[in-house]
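sry for the spam today, last one i promise. struct tokens for design, 537 residues
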């Protein structure tokens, strides 16, 4: 039988459900939505996120074994409160509502939801009566520490429902076991909730009867098949390769599917790191055996960036130029070869890129335009193939390892599409790019030398348009400032500044001031995400 995965790809849907029997998470805009999907995948059950507005038909096509309704910041009584189609509760598929998801279920099925006198936020305690305990709480103690975040509470049960847990002041879990509709007021996906994983496992395996079969190998096999079907026997595919983990894993998957009908294009945007263009090209060709065309478009990009200092404008222009370069290259290739029209563009878009760029009703607002998603022009000459769209970076690394890619690729720090342009505040000039490249190379060298490269998420330099007074020898100087940014993170959704040893910071600072002309001051960035972002622009 044809699997959900293949259909998802063929119909160009966002989600790449890699097998039947996954779980669909419907997003009401909650800050933990992606965590829910990830926790489910950690249990080897595939999970994909769709906006809460997804049509029941679209959900049914994916043949899920379960549906989770996420939390969200709204009150169900808000005028523009996000809603699902009520049909979602009639698909015959088990449902788990979390927080806002629970309130929406209660309201939709005829229960009563009210504003609580007391907002419950942060840590709390839940009591689960052992008598007649819910399948959701099988094997879980009677009292648990949980994580809450809600203002409304369910006060009246919908017909057919019963209470299965409560906090001191509110209902904490309800269910209609016959219809297999379950709901919790707290967040089992968050680490602060004790036994949260057991609760999710109970939902997956006891209630939904999910099979723990999803993993790297299944993902690769299903994705490769899906790509083959989508591309067909004649078309060719062009890939926007950057040498980073994401696009390289995406290219390796497509290469496995269609071999050399995949043409990779690696563009020098003029805002790459020191020696990166030459070294990456060599690595991709020699070590990975990929067919890669290098295009040096430095002049075009710098012309686009001339006089522009607004960060979003820089990102948009770089995004547009990337697509323009690809489109021209593809056309040229098509003209030059006798067969196989190029119809698809592969991108290594990951889940965090998607949610930070797309603002569906409710879900996370646009924070920055990532060039590989939000910056794309409306009319694209290609259809997209984005096989990693549902995954987080660490999941992509695992897939890459299964595909046999070397550590050199897998452990490489992420580098933003708009490159050094968003690490050089203000207008991008050639001179400043050269300064930044040198400083950046020193930061990375020193991090490597200290054995920290694979322990931190990213380490880089930022050039600030700030001049300050210094003294060198007998001369007064008035030079530029470099900020060093080194962060630790699991998935870039949150990040903390790395507590580097003072000696490492000292070596970086001394070397930058001594070796990079024009820089007289070095500062260390001690901001976390949120509220800051990792990149400065
Ligand atoms: P922020 O600055 O949003 O960055 O905290 C989160 C992660 O995303 C990377 N990043 C990008 N990656 N295109 C990309 O492919 C982009 O436009 C882009 N902007 C930021 C950033 O380096 C960090 O790892």
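last one done:
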């Amino acid at each position: 039988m044809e699997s959900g995965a293949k259909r998802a790809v063929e119909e160009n849907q966002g989600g790449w459900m890699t097998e039947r029997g996954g779980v669909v998470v419907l997003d009401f805009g909650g800050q933990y939505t992606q965590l829910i999907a990830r926790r489910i995948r950690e249990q080897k059950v595939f999970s994909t996120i769709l906006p809460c507005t997804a049509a029941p038909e679209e959900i049914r096509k994916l043949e899920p074994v379960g549906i989770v309704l996420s939390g969200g910041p709204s009150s169900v009584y808000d005028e523009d409160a996000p809603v699902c189609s009520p049909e979602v509760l009639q698909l015959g598929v088990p449902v788990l509502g979390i927080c806002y998801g629970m309130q929406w279920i209660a309201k939709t099925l005829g229960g009563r939801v009210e504003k609580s006198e007391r907002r419950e936020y942060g840590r709390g305690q839940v009591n689960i009566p052992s008598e007649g305990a819910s399948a959701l709480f099988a094997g879980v103690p009677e009292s648990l520490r949980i994580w809450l975040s809600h203002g409304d509470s369910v006060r009246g049960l919908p017909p057919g429902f019963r209470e299965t847990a409560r906090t001191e002041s509110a209902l904490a879990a309800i269910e209609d076991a016959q219809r297999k509709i379950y709901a919790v007021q707290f967040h089992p996906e968050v680490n602060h909730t004790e036994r949260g994983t057991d609760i999710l496992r109970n939902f997956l395996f006891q209630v939904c009867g999910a099979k723990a079969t999803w993993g790297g190998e299944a993902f690769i096999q299903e994705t490769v098949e899906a790509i083959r079907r989508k591309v067909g026997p004649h078309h060719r595919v062009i890939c926007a390769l950057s040498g980073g983990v994401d696009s390289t894993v995406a290219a390796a998957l497509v290469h496995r599917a269609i071999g050399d009908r995949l043409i990779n294009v690696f563009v020098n945007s003029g805002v790459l790191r020191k020696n990166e263009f030459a070294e990456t090209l060599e690595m991709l060709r020699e070590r990975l055996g990929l067919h890669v065309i290098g295009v040096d478009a430095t002049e075009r990009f710098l012309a686009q960036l001339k006089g522009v200092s607004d960060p979003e404008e820089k990102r948009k222009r770089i995004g547009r130029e990337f697509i323009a370069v690809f489109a021209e290259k593809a056309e040229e290739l098509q003209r030059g070869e006798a067969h196989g029209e190029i119809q698809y563009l592969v991108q290594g878009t990951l889940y965090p890129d998607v949610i930070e760029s797309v603002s569906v009703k409710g879900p996370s607002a646009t924070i920055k335009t990532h060039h590989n998603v939000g910056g794309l022009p409306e009319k694209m000459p290609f259809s997209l193939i984005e096989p990693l769209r549902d995954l987080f970076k660490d999941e992509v690394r695992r897939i890459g390892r299964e595909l046999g890619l070397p550590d050199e690729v897998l452990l490489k720090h992420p580098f933003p599409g708009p490159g050094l342009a968003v690490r050089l505040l203000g207008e991008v000039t050639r001179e400043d790019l050269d300064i930044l490249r040198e400083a950046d190379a020193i930061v990375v060298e020193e991090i490597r030398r200290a054995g920290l490269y694979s322990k931190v998420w990213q380490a880089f330099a930022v050039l600030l348009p700030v001049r300050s007074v210094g003294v060198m020898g007998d001369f007064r100087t008035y030079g530029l400032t470099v900020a060093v940014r080194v962060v630790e993170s699991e998935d870039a959704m949150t990040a903390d500044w790395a507590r580097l040893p003072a000696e490492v910071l000292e070596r970086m600072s001394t070397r930058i001031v001594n070796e990079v002309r024009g820089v007289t001051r070095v500062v260390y960035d001690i901001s976390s995400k949120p509220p800051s972002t990792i990149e400065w622009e």
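Residues 1-18, 357-371, 373-377 have pLDDT under 50 and may be disordered. ok im logging off now
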